[in-house]
Structures are given as structure tokens and as C-alpha cells.
């Protein structure tokens, strides 16, 4: 099951993007309740995208998934305020528990 399908199966509305630049250009981004992003993407990486979001004062929970090896990306993600960091292959149940925890108190759309 794709990540998009997994999140939808929990009752949430999702939007997917091919790259960080496409995401940052979306005018609906300000209605985001939680973002799940890879770190490695074509063009701008996920950490750079989070820096851009913060520079725009767009603050919502961000969870990263990645195949990146090493401590540096995780440390940087946490410094930027990421609320979750999952290394591939990740346990989809753990990821969904994290999403539910982050969104607790927010209604599923």
C-alpha cells in the first residue's frame, strides 16, 4: 500500500507532490495539518524544504522518512523541529501511530 493510500485509509485528506518545489508552490499549503516528507528528493531536499517553510512562518508538524544513513540528517531534522523521523524500510503501523498522535485533537477531514 502506498503512503498516500495508507494515510487516506485512516480518514485523512492527502496531497502528494513530485518535488519540494511543487509543494512549496501550492497555495493550499497553509491548510496543512501534518506533512510527511522524504529527505532525498529531486532538486531541493526535505530539510531545505522545511527551512523554506519555517522562513515563510508555516509551522505544522513534519515527519520525515528516509533511506539516508547516518546521524546527521536526523539531527538536522530534529533541530528544525521535525516531530518524527523514520528510516526506510519503516513500520507503517508505527508511522500511522505517530501521525495519529500528532493529529490528536484535530479532526480527520
Automatic annotation (TrEMBL):
PROSITE patterns: RESPONSE_REGULATORY. The modification 4-aspartylphosphate is found at residue 38. The keyword Nucleus does not apply. Residues 1-103 form the Response regulatory domain. The keyword Phosphoprotein applies. Pfam families: Response_reg. InterPro entries: Bact_response_regulator, CheY-like_superfamily, Sig_transdc_resp-reg_receiver. It comes from the Bacteria. GO terms for biological process: phosphorelay signal transduction system. Keywords: Phosphoprotein. This is Response regulatory domain-containing protein. It comes from Pseudomonas mandelii JR-1.
Amino acid at each position: 500500500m502506498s503512503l498516500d493510500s495508507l494515510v487516506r485509509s485512516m480518514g485523512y485528506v492527502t496531497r502528494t507532490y513530485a518535488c519540494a518545489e511543487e509543494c512549496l508552490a501550492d497555495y493550499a499549503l497553509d491548510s496543512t495539518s501534518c506533512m510527511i516528507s522524504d529527505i532525498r528528493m529531486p532538486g531541493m531536499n526535505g530539510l531545505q524544504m522545511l527551512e523554506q517553510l519555517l522562513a515563510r512562518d508555516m509551522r505544522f508538524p513534519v515527519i520525515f522518512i528516509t533511506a539516508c544513513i547516518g546521524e546527521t540528517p536526523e539531527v538536522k531534522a530534529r533541530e528544525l523541529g521535525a516531530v518524527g523521523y523514520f528510516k526506510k524500510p519503516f513500520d507503517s503501523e508505527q508511522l500511522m501511530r505517530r501521525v495519529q498522535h500528532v493529529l490528536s485533537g484535530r479532526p480527520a477531514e
